[in-house]
Amino acid sequence: MPRFSWSEESLIQLKALIAEKHTAGRIAAILSALLKVRITRNAVIGKCHRDGIKLAQTRQGRPRNPDGTPPARRPRGARSIWALSFTLDPGAGSHACGAAEHSVG
User: Fold this and answer.
1) Which of 22, 44, 68, 71 is 20 to 30 A distant from 88 in Cα terms?
2) Is the pTM for the entire model greater than 0.70?
3) What domain count does the chain have?
C-alpha cells in the first residue's frame, strides 16, 4: 500500500467521524476503507494530538457512588475469602486440602 499523508479531504472526514463519536480505532478502519490506504489507530491519535483535535472520551473509568465519590477500596493487606480458607486452621496440615500429607503411588 502507498504511504499515507493527511490531505484536506481526509481531515474533513476525520473531523466528521470524531463528531460522530467514533473511537480512534474505528476512525482508522473507516478512513482506511474509504481512502484505500492503511491508516492506524496511532496515526489518528497522533494527528489529533498535533492539530489539537479532541477525540471522544470512550473510557468509562471506575464506577462512582451516587454522590460522585469513588467507591471504597479494600484495605491494604486485606485477603479474599479464598485466600483465608487456606489459613483458617493452621493445625490441619500443610496442604490446601487439609491433609497432613499425601501418599504416593
Assistant:
1) 71
2) no
3) 1
